[in-house]
Design brief:
The complex is a heterodimer of chains A (about 325) and B (about 550). Chain A has about 325 residues and is an all-alpha fold. Chain A has 14 helices and no strands. The longest helix of chain A has about 35 residues. The radius of gyration of chain A is 24 Å and the shape is flat. Helix content of chain B is about 35%, strand content about 25%. The chains are: A mainly alpha (about 325), B alpha/beta (about 550).
Chain lengths: ~325, ~550
């Protein structure tokens, strides 16, 4: 009975909305990159190229066809897993992106596994003991971490751990990762830097969501039935705060795929964000578009997942 | 335990609160009372009198920002004031339990009802789960709940308000407590539902021989259930005595004032209907309204259908009905806030456009609406003066000194001092806010005022004063009121004619003074007979057709 037709309909609706959003986004991505200044053929051939050569290349690349037709072709390609060829490297974008995406997802995965449990626990504890020294300490710490830009955290940690103390390698990539210890050392600094930013947001949002439900009459009712503080929070408040918490977590995590350019640059970590910035520098349109689409898809996936958790955790919507 | 030792004794109880501005105030100032085993004590008072605070303190609980600062509370052999939080938690649910004001809010929306009802037995490990559920089903039966065997499997949003309130009583009784605290448990219910719930409460309390604390602002409700009454004001006891004595021979002036607010003040019509020759100030012909997307000219949810009436100048029309009867929708449709999709509204013989936006400024000016909650109807960021000056500028083009002068006049009309115009709504009391709300409507110099439950959120004494003011203004300005309320005595006090609404339709039109005698429709009779009377034997002696109740009330 948990999965009634209404549930399926609501979930179907969410998926439909996600799909429509994806199409709109791909439209925006395609035409935004179209509007980038400069002619691709001209750039590829260099300043010395003759106008005939440029025109020939444009023709060969299909750049003279109407934009909308090229958009449709590109969309069909995306749907079938063909992201086109990189202009600069002349290899399939899929091959170029595949390895990088793996790197990004690995980093994001490690950060998620560490951050989500820590952030939720801290957020819930801070809410349970609102106003106590513990709550204040957590609040002060999260606000400080949010206020410090991540390049500061990243460069400072390089300075301290790599330069002064010499405990960790300054670069994460290219070092030998054949043992677990080496892997831990290689990932330590990017993971710590990202965890700081992501966890702080999650802690604050979780705390706010739990406090809001703690103040409801049904939690007071649980107190008047003799429930312990732990029971009030875990059994009564938390299930009702699940929707907002899932959304907060999704928003924070979506940052891990696309928003980590600074961290990837500072630690020379070969992820998707860095790939995209390089692609912009070389005007590698198919690569830029594909990277942008990867970000959008991961963002949409997370948000849609959060929405589904919210639907499933609410008996009013579930039935 | 000896029978003459009280079950509960409270001595010199003092509770303090920290205000938003960080000031310490004492909200309960030295309260003493006892409750004998099996006795039901009522705490009566208006909002802010501290009745709920005292009731909760018996369980050792104070709301956020409050704390017990002095005195002792003894329940059975436990000294609640001297206990640790952990010891108090052991008491809650087993020795003392709580029935909340709004069961709809006190049930966790994401858990099944049964899980919540038997939770007390799980927390205190009183009995095995199966036995607890069996006991719960027994209580559901005793509380006259429908489908007692399966109702626990539902979620809170799947049962009605009256049922939830009875389920919350089952939740309180499952741990077999010695003392049950009822915190305004019927205030949020309709009158016809209230009767069922009151009856069920009384029956289980009598059978179980439990003591109770019944918190309420409604003397008539308390008269049906309490043995003794404590009258509170501003955190102090004004008077306490047996229910009979408080009702028939009150000593304290405040108790007398409370009782006086109950006395029906017969309404004398300003003017009789002068035949058909006169054009009614408001005429409604076959009006339909509803909400939702419009399909084929009809909205998805039709809330009100085929309402017709005439209201003559200088007379007042009452509209009564329970929540969901469509009475507020009627006011909104007449005002044009919710455009009617069929039918006509005529103001002084002229047809008005259905929607507010299509009406002329003059038409808008002549009919004003006053809402129930002055708190939300007054912009919290504007001063009282600028709130009242706005319609003056909009309708009359008054500005500057002229507007200021008129604002002072209007404040005077509603008996508020001129200095009040510099204050913000949040700095006023509930009654003052409602007066400002009224002054704003008067600023337009209307001929008709639609009053939507304007006294419902106010305490009885304050509400009675607002009604007096309405009558006085009517005499001075020749206004007509359409007065919407769920409270029959309020309507009786100010109206000449009454429309009874049920499920979006007018079931009967009656003269207000002869409502109880003349009502013929089954629903009107049920509604009128369900209003509690200030008589301790009223509920016991009340005979209502159970089938009628089942057909019309929200069970």
């Amino acid at each position: 009975m948990l999965w009634s037709t209404t549930t399926w309909r609501l979930i179907g609706q969410r998926l439909g909305i996600a799909l429509i959003t994806l199409v709109i986004v791909s439209f925006a991505v395609f035409f935004a990159t179209e509007m980038l200044p400069g002619d691709v053929a001209q750039i590829l051939l260099g300043q010395a190229a003759t106008p005939e050569a440029v025109a020939g290349l444009r023709e060969a690349m299909g750049l003279n066809e109407p934009a909308f037709q090229r958009f449709l072709g590109w969309l069909v390609g995306l749907a079938t897993g063909d992201m086109g060829r990189s202009y600069v490297n002349d290899i399939e974008v899929v091959d170029l992106l595949g390895g990088r995406l793996q790197n990004s997802l690995r980093l994001a995965g490690i950060v998620t596994v560490i951050c989500v449990p820590v952030a939720l626990t801290l957020g819930i504890i801070a809410a349970m003991f609102r106003g106590s020294w513990l709550d204040r300490a957590v609040s002060v710490a999260t606000i400080s971490v949010i206020s410090v830009p991540e390049f500061m955290v990243a460069t400072l940690s390089v300075l301290v751990f790599a330069v002064w103390l010499g405990w960790l390698p300054a670069l994460s990539y290219g070092v030998n990762v054949d043992s677990i210890g080496a892997m831990l050392r290689a990932y330590a600094m990017p993971v710590i830097t990202l965890s700081f930013v992501v966890a702080a947001q999650m802690i604050r949002m979780t705390r706010a969501a739990v406090i809001e439900t703690i103040e409801t009459p049904y939690v007071e009712m649980a107190l008047l039935k003799g429930a312990s503080k732990l029971r009030m929070v875990l059994v009564h408040a938390l299930p009702n705060a699940l929707g907002p918490i899932a959304n907060a977590v999704a928003l924070s995590l979506s940052y891990l795929v696309g928003g980590v350019i600074i961290v990837e640059t500072v630690f020379n970590y070969p992820g998707v964000a860095k790939l995209m910035v390089d692609a912009v520098a070389t005007r590698d349109l198919p690569l830029i578009q594909s990277c942008a689409m990867v970000f959008c898809v991961s963002y949409l996936t997370l948000i849609t997942l959060a929405d589904m958790i919210a639907i499933l955790s609410n008996p009013r919507l579930r039935q | 335990m000896m029978t003459d030792t009280p079950l509960v004794s409270v001595r010199d109880l003092r509770i303090g609160a920290v205000t938003d501005s960080g000031r310490n105030v004492e909200i309960i100032r030295g309260v003493d009372f006892d409750i004998a085993p099996g006795e039901i004590l009522a705490l009566i008072g208006e909002s802010g009198s501290g009745k709920t605070t005292i009731a909760l303190s018996l369980m050792g609980h104070t709301r956020r920002g409050c704390s017990i600062e002095g005195g002792t509370i003894r329940v059975g052999e436990h000294d609640v004031t001297g206990m640790t939080e952990r010891q108090r938690a052991k008491l809650r649910g087993t020795e003392i339990s709580y029935v909340p004001q709004s069961a709809a809010a006190a049930f966790n929306p994401s858990k099944r009802i049964m899980d919540q009802v038997v939770e007390t037995t799980r927390i205190h490990d009183l009995m095995p789960r199966a036995k607890a559920e069996e006991r719960a089903r027994g209580l559901f039966r005793a509380l006259a709940l429908p489908d007692p065997d399966t109702i626990g499997e539902r979620y809170p949003h799947q049962v009605s308000g009256g049922q939830l309130q009875r389920l919350s009583a089952a939740m309180a009784l499952i741990g077999d407590p010695e003392l049950v605290i009822f915190d305004e448990p019927t205030t949020a219910l309709d009158v016809t539902t209230q009767i069922e719930v009151l009856r069920a409460f009384r029956r289980v309390m009598e059978e179980g021989g439990m003591a109770g604390v019944y918190v309420s602002h409604d003397l008539a409700v308390v008269a049906q259930i309490a043995d003794r009454i404590v009258v509170l004001k501003n955190g102090e006891i004004q008077e306490q005595g047996t229910t009979e004595q408080i009702l028939s021979a009150p000593k304290h002036p405040y108790t007398k004032e409370l009782l006086a607010a109950f006395d029906p003040v017969p309404h004398v019509a300003v003017k009789d209907v002068e035949a058909e020759a006169e054009t009614p100030i408001l005429e409604v012909r076959g009006l339909y309204a509803g909400y939702g997307p419009i399909k084929d000219g009809e909205p998805l949810a039709k809330v009100m259908s085929d309402v017709s009436f005439k209201l003559y100048r200088g007379r007042n029309l009452g509209v009564i009905g329970e929540s969901g009867s469509g009475k507020s929708t009627l006011a909104r449709a007449i005002a044009g806030i919710l455009p009617a999709y069929r039918g006509e509204v005529l103001l002084d013989g002229h047809t008005l456009a259905p929607s507010l936006g299509q009406r002329s400024k003059q038409e808008l000016r002549r009919a004003q609406i006053v809402f129930q909650l002055a708190d939300t109807a007054l912009n919290p960021a504007h001063s009282v003066g600028s709130i009242i000056a706005r319609p003056l500028r909009f309708y009359k083009g008054l500005r500057g000194d002229a507007a200021d002068k008129r604002v002072i006049e209007l404040l005077d009309m509603v008996h508020l001092p001129p200095t009040l115009r510099h204050r913000l709504p949040s700095e006023l009391s509930g009654g003052q806010k409602q007066r400002v709300n009224l002054a704003r409507a008067l600023a337009a110099e209307p001929e008709l005022i639609l009053c939507d439950e304007i006294t419902s959120a106010l305490d009885t004494v304050v509400a009675a004063a607002i009604l007096e003011l309405l009558k006085e203004l009517q005499g001075e300005l020749g206004l007509s009121y359409m007065f919407i309320s769920h409270d029959l005595s309020t309507v009786e006090a100010i109206c000449d004619d009454v429309l009874v609404m049920y499920k979006g339709e007018v079931v009967e039109a009656l003269p207000a003074a002869r409502m109880s005698q003349d009502a013929t429709h089954a629903y009107s009779r049920l509604l009128i007979s369900s209003v509690p009377q200030l008589d301790t034997g009223w509920l016991a002696g009340l005979e209502q057709d159970p089938e009628l109740l089942a057909a019309f009330s929200d069970r």
